[in-house]
Design brief:
By secondary structure, the protein is an alpha/beta fold. The protein has 2 domains: 3-9 and 246-360, D-serine dehydratase-like domain (Lyase, Ornithine Decarboxylase, Chain A, domain 1, Beta Barrel); 15-236, Alanine racemase (TIM Barrel), CATH 3.20.20.10. Helices cover 30% and strands 24% of the residues. The protein contains 11 helices and 17 strands. The strands form 2 sheets. Strands 1, 10, 11, 12, 13, 14, 15, 16 and 17 form a 9-stranded mixed sheet that branches. Helix 3 runs parallel beside helix 4 and helix 4 (88-100) packs across helix 5 (110-123). The protein is globular and about 70 Å long. The chain starts with 9 loop residues before the first strand and ends in a 14-residue tail after the last strand. The model has no long low-confidence stretch (mean pLDDT 96). Bound molecules: pyridoxal-5'-phosphate. Pyridoxal-5'-phosphate binds next to loops.
């Protein structure tokens, strides 16, 4: 089917760009001898997880328990959950996952660990965990100086098995200049080295030292001790990656296909893709680095400056002119691909002007209602 026959708005993924992104990162991970367990919260799709696995990913990092369960049901063995649990349903689901696959959870509170230990004890199983290292993101976890003391506190929990440490340098998303990226990567590298050396000196055996983020990926491939990498957004890339890492728009696989449906006055256009399709993000991790809501491909003269739920407002930049008119189709690269991806039920896969496949976005939260019962 030709793209032009599809009703807009629609979320497209350019097949060749996505495959190139997937292959590049897998190749780099292979070359440095580290395992790739991609963070799949970006695409939330079993179809894309399969591509990552077929290219060489040996495990996955998930952003929700729904994703973990979907991956487990699909038969994948190595599954890590990125965040701690602290409630009864969370502990129950973790215990159930630990029975079925090589499951690893990340922990950073004594209370959460205690609850999980109790659930695991009742079920008669062990749960593997890594401790979250704070490598500068100041979201979860302990600094390299604090981490051994936390590991010691968890030692009495007979059902919890220490596997190592995990981190994510989320603060890299505050970087405003690709030339400054190395500073964030240096924080991450130093924190990991110190944490590993302190824990090892205290007698801990670290089977897993894992980290990951697309902007830091190159640096992470060279990091001492790290054996598992978890980049996520590299599968699609987006305007944010372009602004902080200098990734060209030509490497952005995910884009929104939209129609210009109105032009209330000269220089102002309304398209049929709004916040429910593109997402309101102006950055990631709560940052607001971008001025507009996406990049309009092949129309450098235009800016998407405002979104309401179903439509977006586009204006011509000062001093520029445009030839677009009502009825034209536009292609918009979102600021944050993870958010835009979460707003669609499927990706239309494009090759040139053709739609050649549809990939379901089948791991979104509560999309299966498997965890809901009364
Ligand atoms: C814990 C964790 N690990 C890995 C990633 C992947 O990072 P990126 O999206 O920069 O590739 C994320 C993304 O937010 C994350 O939260």
């Amino acid at each position: 089917m030709k793209k032009k026959f599809l009703q807009t708005p629609a979320t497209f993924v350019d097949k060749n760009i996505m495959l190139t992104n997937l292959r590049n990162i897998q190749k780099k991970a292979d070359e440095c001898g580290k395992q790739l367990w991609p963070m799949i919260k970006t695409h939330k799709s079993l179809g894309i997880a399969r591509m990552q696995y077929d290219l060489g990913a040996t495990g996955f990092l998930a952003g929700t328990l729904d994703e973990c369960e979907a991956l487990c049901e699909e038969g994948y063995e190595n599954i890590m959950y990125a965040y701690p649990v602290a409630d009864e349903p969370g502990c129950r689901r973790v215990v159930s996952l630990a029975k079925k696959c090589n499951f690893i959870i990340r922990l950073d509170t004594f209370e959460g660990a205690m609850r999980l230990n109790e659930h695991a004890r009742k079920a008669g199983i062990k749960v593997q965990y890594t401790i979250i290292l704070n490598s500068g993101g100041n979201r979860f976890g302990y600094t390299a100086g604090e981490i051994t003391a936390f590991a010691e506190r968890l030692k009495p929990f007979s059902q919890l098995v220490f596997m190592g440490i995990s981190t994510h340098p989320g603060h890299i998303y505050t970087c405003k200049d690709p030339k400054e990226l190395y500073k964030y990567i240096e924080d991450e590298k130093t924190a990991i080295k110190e944490a590993v050396e302190k824990l090892t000196a205290a007698g801990y055996d670290l089977k897993i030292v894992s980290t990951g983020s697309t902007p830091a990926f190159e640096g992470e491939t060279r990091m001492e001790y790290v054996n598992i990498l978890h980049p996520g957004v590299y599968v699609f890339n987006d305007c944010l990656q372009s602004s902080i890492s200098g990734i060209p728009y030509e490497s952005c696989a995910l884009y929104i296909y939209t129609t210009v449906i109105s032009s209330p006055k000269q220089g102002l256009y309304i398209c049929d893709a709004g916040s429910k399709c593109i997402g309101l993000d102006k950055g990631a991790h709560g940052n607001s680095l971008m001025d507009t809501y996406g990049y309009i491909k092949e129309h450098d003269e235009l800016e998407l400056f405002s979104l309401s739920e179903e439509v977006g407002k586009i204006r011509v930049k000062a001093g520029k002119s445009t030839n677009i008119k009502v009825g034209d189709r536009l292609e918009i690269i979102p600021n944050h691909a993870c958010s835009a991806a979460n707003l669609t039920g499927c990706y239309f896969v494009t090759e040139g002007e053709n739609i050649t496949n549809v990939i379901k976005n089948d791991m979104r939260s509560n999309s299966t209602l498997k965890n809901y019962y009364v």
